[in-house]
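Reply to thread "Modeling small-molecule complexes from scratch"

Following up on the discussion above, here's a worked example others can learn from. I took a protein sequence and the SMILES for zinc ion and predicted the complex. Inputs first:
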Amino acid sequence: MSRRLHLALALLAVAAAAQADVFTWVDAAGVTHIADDPASVPPDARMGRDGLRDLWGEGPQGRMPAAGTPRAARASLETSRSRRIVEGAVADIERGETALAATALESALRIDPRLPDPHWYLAGLDRERGRYASAESHLRAFLGLAGEAYELWRNAAEERLRALVDEQRLADPKSAGDADAWVGVAHPHFRIQYHSDLGRAEPAYASTVVRYLEEARHVVGERLGTVPEEPMGVVLYGKAAYLRAHRHRFSFQTVGFYDGRIHVVSAAHPAGELRALLFHEYAHAVFREQTGGDRPYWLNEGLAELCERASRGQAGLTRSERSSLSQRIDAGTWIPLRRIAPSFSGLGDEDARSAYLVAAAAARWIETHSRPADRARVLELLGEGRSDDDTLSAVLGRPTEGVDDEVRRWVRSAFPTTGNAALGPPL
Ligand SMILES: [Zn+2]
């Protein structure tokens, strides 16, 4: 049988990316290929389907309809109050303040339990955190409450419910099966392997992952100033398969790590959260490739956090995050960069959360005060075995404590001083 016939018989999927066409096909050896030059693609592999649609990110656009049935005056007063809360929560979600949004949506439901909208948004938030059962019950509540005026949203909710069945299956340890089968993808910059269950749930899976990784490489290259020359290994698992393979490695729950290859948990129908995770883990992978280690930990974690946020369209810290850091400065509980240079270990939950924010703030300050080539130089000097202080002094003109001072000044500058002498001079 000719090679071409092999390719044609094993045709899996063809994906069209937004700008350039990207073609994906599987050859007789089971290797998935990706090409952007149509001439290199077997003819039968050219017809096909679009890349995976982001079911959860690209829902119906625009405002939901106002509550339909007329009610008593008091009820409609409460409805308008809870609607304002929902509108505020939607704005919070757009800013990345998801915890605030979830609290607000729950309170809107306490005021008006007949309101469908909060269930719609809570389903999305739950699904992003992997709480599939709760996401499902919110979608069902939405369908029970939303009338005909919500037709577009009702259709999307039905579609999301079907996708959640795949997610629950991949997360279920009993249904994960013990025969692990893997699909390989050849790519100039990545060596990708994914659990075959992922591709079975979603035929456009491979092309979507390739697109996410290409975007990650671009963003991380800009922020860290460098990308590896060698292809990076990336392994993607369904949730249960990941736990089965790697649970023993960690005392806490993880969704990804790097050990020379990037390993990550993926949804069956991945959306923004897989993209964010790949951006985060790719940044760590590049940091380790360049420096040979993971320290200073605050810089490593801070840069990864910023890359992850970039994938969600966020430039840096939210106002409420800066405010919480500012309060810690005032309270004398700021976690110094020096403390979190070796690792974040030994911190309680709340301090660990704050340490991530400190790291992101410091990385953000560095980003706004350096060029990509400077950041690449930081990684290069660390890779040569220079100390943190030597490296930071050489490139940024100040050692760890100096950077720490600047970051605190930057965090405080978002908030007017209250005139309290204990806060020090106005900034
Ligand atoms: Zn990380």
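What I'd highlight from this example: The chain has four domains: 3-45, 76-171, 182-291, 297-423. The pocket of zinc ion is lined by residues 280, 284, 301, 304 (CB under 6 Å). Questions welcome below.
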